[in-house]
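Hi all, posting the design record for the shared folder.

TITLE: backbone redesign
STEP: 1 of 1
STRUCTURE INPUT:
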């Protein structure tokens, strides 16, 4: 899996010509093809907060920057909760696989599978 980096379109090239737009990264999966990483709906408070960040980052309005930071931190907290739940679910499924493998006389760890998983994460996350 390979990830396409986030790209920014200058305001002059943007259809609205108001502020830079951010294109979501995409993840290339050999099994499923390319899928865009989901983000906030256009026009939502989250998406408009992101465009306000451009003016706030320039120092024009510290209050606006604080608002953007608060909204984005809340979004990160929500994403972290989802990631934690997914990792917990993954650990449970992995435990079931391990129990089945040991129950059938196999090894506790399947090293080639572990390396395959690490390559997948490394390819997707750039490490």
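Okay, here is what came back for every position:
SEQUENCE:
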């Amino acid at each position: 899996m390979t990830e396409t980096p986030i790209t920014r379109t200058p305001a002059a090239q943007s259809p609205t010509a108001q502020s830079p737009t951010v294109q979501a990264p995409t993840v290339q999966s050999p099994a499923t093809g390319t899928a865009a990483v989901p983000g906030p709906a256009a026009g939502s408070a989250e998406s408009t907060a992101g465009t306000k960040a451009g003016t706030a980052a320039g120092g024009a309005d510290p209050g606006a920057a604080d608002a953007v930071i608060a909204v984005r931190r809340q979004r990160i907290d929500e994403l972290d909760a989802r990631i934690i739940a997914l990792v917990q679910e993954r650990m449970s499924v992995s435990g079931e696989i391990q129990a089945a493998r040991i129950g059938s006389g196999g090894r506790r760890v399947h090293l080639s599978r572990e390396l395959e998983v690490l390559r997948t994460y490394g390819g997707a996350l750039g490490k």
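COMMENT: The longest strand covers residues 26-29.
Let me know if anyone wants the other runs.
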